[in-house]
From TrEMBL:
Organism: Pseudotabrizicola sediminis
Alphabetical UniProt keywords: Cell inner membrane, Cell membrane, Membrane, Transport
Location within or outside the cell: Endomembrane system
InterPro entries (UniProt xref): NrtA/CpmA_ABC-bd_dom
PANTHER family: ALIPHATIC SULFONATES-BINDING PROTEIN-RELATED (PTHR30024), BLL4572 PROTEIN (PTHR30024:SF43)
Protein name: ABC transporter substrate-binding protein
Length: 391
């Protein structure tokens, strides 16, 4: 059978796993597709390749298509986020110098207490604090702002864009004092001795959306069959990845020279939720550090688009209410329902929810009766009600 080729861009990160696994384990071939996986080095490059037609789809930061929809980027065709690929997987790291100073003050690097970590960091960080994130429109930027906003440290923080594979180099060179990035690049900084892991992203926000599968509106409208086939292949790969016995195999695949080009042991840390927080080998267990499917990871909630748009609009002087409404238009719950129902995906009864309201796994109405949503609470207790329900 002849396979239809599709060009997919990815940044070398652990959370590119759904695209890589879809191709390597045959989920794409089952849908009649061959995925030509194109490694890119930055999110600006990923955005530009997608916008200019150099790739057909992208593994992309969840806030990036929102920013495009709000006009905060080049004049490209509209972007559609058709499904989520992952939740979590981010870590905040600090330089070796800051880590040593925090240890001297008694901080134990528990990796799971945002308030204790913030207090300890504030106690040793004099003057401006330069924090690296992979892109201005990223969940990492949202996590850092949420963690530090309203504090003296938050008033002193400056955000700097650093491509994920270069985070450790930036920390070593003194270009940033800390960073928030997806695995395995936080662990790489520990392995090379230039930093220590301070906090998991999921300690700040229980379900921080990390990557989505993004195509242009032109593609989803002109090529609906291929859109559906790609979504089903990637969805099945996400489901496979969240079977615990498969994580070791996934680490081996991702670590190959064509992909992350790192030792499997390093890639495995984030996948297994067994993080080394220092070069001395201190290990912290964080179950569910990254999820690809379980807990309804893959559904692109429109309320989530509104939540992320709120901060982006506020920072760029846009009308916040209008921006939240516009942002929902690029989270294609309609395509998710249309194309993944046949694959066996359970579908919630609504396309919006109150964000941050669940401290525990929660059952909600679905097409199959009930589905379990994972906790999504914020450490500061905020909830966000978009005041609309969209199907």
């Amino acid at each position: 059978m002849s396979l239809t080729p599709l060009r997919l861009g990815y940044v070398p990160l652990t959370d590119a796993a759904p695209l890589i696994v879809a191709q390597e384990l045959g989920f794409a071939a089952e849908e009649g597709l061959h995925l030509d996986l194109i490694r890119v080095q930055s999110w600006a490059q990923s955005r530009d390749l997608l916008g200019m037609g150099g790739i057909d789809a992208a593994h992309m930061l969840v806030p990036l298509p929102i920013a495009q929809t709000l006009g905060l980027g080049p004049d490209y065709p509209r972007f559609d986020l058709v499904m989520m690929l992952s939740v979590g997987g981010q870590a905040i790291a600090v330089s070796a110098a800051l880590a040593n100073a925090m240890r001297a003050q008694g901080h134990g690097f528990g990796f799971d207490d945002p308030v204790a970590a913030r207090t300890a960091l504030a106690g040793v960080a004099d003057g401006p604090l330069r924090v690296g994130v992979p892109f201005p429109f990223s969940t990492q930027a949202e996590l850092v702002r949420r963690w530090l906003d309203g504090t003296d440290l938050g008033a002193r923080v400056t955000i700097h864009t650093v491509p994920p594979p270069l985070m450790a180099d930036a920390l070593a060179a003194g270009e940033v004092d800390a960073f928030c990035v997806g695995e395995p690049w936080a662990s790489y900084a520990v392995e090379t001795g230039v930093g220590a892991l301070l906090l998991a992203g999921r300690a700040i926000w229980a379900s921080p959306p990390e990557k989505g599968l993004v195509l242009t509106r032109d593609f989803t409208e002109a090529r609906p069959d291929e859109t559906g086939r790609l979504m089903r292949a990637v969805w099945r790969a996400c489901r496979w990845l969240d079977r615990p016995d498969n994580r070791g195999t996934a680490a081996e695949i991702l670590s190959r020279p064509d992909y992350l080009n790192l030792p499997p042991e390093l890639t495995e840390r984030g996948l297994l939720g067994r993080l080394h927080v220092s070069a001395a080998g201190e290990v912290r267990q964080f179950p569910g550090f990254i999820r690809f499917h379980d807990g309804s990871v893959n559904f692109p909630w429109r309320s989530l688009a509104a939540l992320l748009a709120r901060r982006i609009a506020g920072q760029h002087g846009l009308d916040v209410a209008r921006a939240m409404e516009q942002a929902t238009e690029c989270f294609r719950t309609d395509l998710y329902r249309q194309h993944l129902r046949s694959a066996g995906a359970d579908l919630p009864g609504a396309s919006a929810r109150i964000e941050g309201a669940m401290a525990h796994p929660t059952a909600v109405a679905s097409e199959k009766g009930q589905m379990i949503l994972a906790p999504d609470a914020f450490f500061d207790g905020e909830t966000f009600d978009p005041a609309f329900t969209l199907r």
